[in-house]
């Protein structure tokens, strides 16, 4: 009887609490040098909630000449998107890869990567960790999305959030996601060269080889800085588009990619959450 009780105590001691796990999850914030007010706002929130955040100096795409862009071919990008690349998109892409590189170099098991127009909250880390625990594999869970069309629930987390995949996309936004070390290493290889905007490329688990999911509800809100985007506004995207007939390759790619997305979502089977008490 005493031995049985002692074993239970040891087993419980081996299971770290959510608060202890949260202390070991670093948040990487992508922030441009010319946007110090965004970083200051997040530092204040991090201090309020007792979080550890690390600044990733964002790459300003407007300062890089087209001939100096690495892992990028303009012709291939136009083929897949039907328009030219915006300088801000290139900077965003390279900045996220820089964040992934720094995370992998840190030796940490998991990290949350976010852009500086997202607000922190006191439940972000526990809910993000629960989302990761509810699914399997080398994985990434998007914690913020602009749209979820044809959402297929796959699991329910210990925090009562629903995790799944979408039948239709792109879902938009790479503003906040949690990723484990193995998945980050794969992304650093599979996301090169740059063929698509980062937010589009990130959610294509069927292409990256990373099990990719989304939460049904956004786990973080956007800050007031969201309206002042540093990547590009609608008018800039329209100006970069080619004539409709010259965009046929992009339409064909999107059609094929949509079929792959359907297959990727349909094959995902519901997963059971194993609680720490079992």
Could you please describe the fold and organization of this structure?
Helix 4 packs across helix 11 (248-266). The protein has one domain (2-266): Spore Coat Polysaccharide Biosynthesis Protein SpsA, Chain A (Alpha-Beta Complex), CATH 3.90.550. The chain is an alpha/beta fold and 278 residues long. It is built from eleven helices and eight strands. The longest helix is centred in the middle third of the chain and has 20 residues, at 87-106. It is globular, with a radius of gyration of 20 Å.
Which class in CATH terms? Answer: Alpha Beta
Number of strands: 8
Which structural category fits the helices and strands?
alpha/beta
Determine Rg (CA atoms, Å).
20 Å
Q: What is the multimeric organization of the chains shown? A: single chain
Structural domains: how many: 1
Give the % helix. 40-55%
Shape: globular
Distance between the termini: 19 Å
Query: What CATH architecture label applies?
Result: Alpha-Beta Complex
Strand order, largest beta sheet? 2-1-3-7-4-8-6-5
Mean pLDDT: 88
What name is given to the CATH topology? Answer: Spore Coat Polysaccharide Biosynthesis Protein SpsA, Chain A
Organism: Rhizobium jaguaris
Domain Glycosyl transferase family: 26-200
InterPro entries: Glyco_trans_25
GO molecular function, one term: transferase activity
């Amino acid at each position: 009887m005493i031995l049985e009780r002692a074993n239970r105590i040891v087993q419980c001691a081996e299971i770290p609490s959510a608060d202890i796990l949260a202390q070991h999850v670093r948040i990487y914030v992508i922030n441009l040098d010319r946007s110090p007010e965004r970083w200051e706002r997040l530092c204040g929130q991090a201090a309020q909630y007792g979080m550890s955040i690390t600044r990733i100096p964002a790459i300003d795409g407007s300062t890089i000449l087209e001939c100096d862009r690495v892992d990028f071919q303009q012709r291939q990008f136009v083929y897949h998107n039907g328009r030219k690349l915006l300088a801000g998109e290139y900077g965003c892409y390279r900045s996220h890869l820089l964040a992934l590189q720094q995370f992998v170099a840190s030796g940490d098991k998991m990290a949350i990567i976010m852009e500086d127009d997202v607000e922190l909250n006191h439940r972000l880390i526990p809910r993000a960790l629960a989302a990761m625990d509810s699914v399997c594999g080398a994985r990434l869970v998007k914690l913020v999305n602009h749209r979820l069309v044809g959402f297929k629930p796959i699991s329910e987390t210990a925090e009562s959030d629903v995790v799944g995949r979408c039948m239709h996309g792109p879902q938009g936004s790479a503003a906040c996601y949690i990723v484990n070390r193995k998945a980050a290493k794969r992304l650093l290889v599979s996301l090169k060269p740059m063929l698509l905007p980062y937010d589009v490329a990130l959610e294509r688990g069927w292409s990256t080889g990373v099990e990719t999911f989304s939460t049904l509800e956004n786990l973080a809100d956007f800050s007031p800085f969201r309206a002042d985007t540093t990547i590009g506004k609608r008018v800039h995207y329209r100006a970069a588009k080619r004539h409709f007939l010259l965009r046929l390759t992009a339409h064909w790619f999107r059609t094929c990619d949509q079929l792959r997305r359907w297959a990727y979502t349909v094959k995902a089977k519901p997963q059971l959450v194993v609680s720490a008490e079992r």
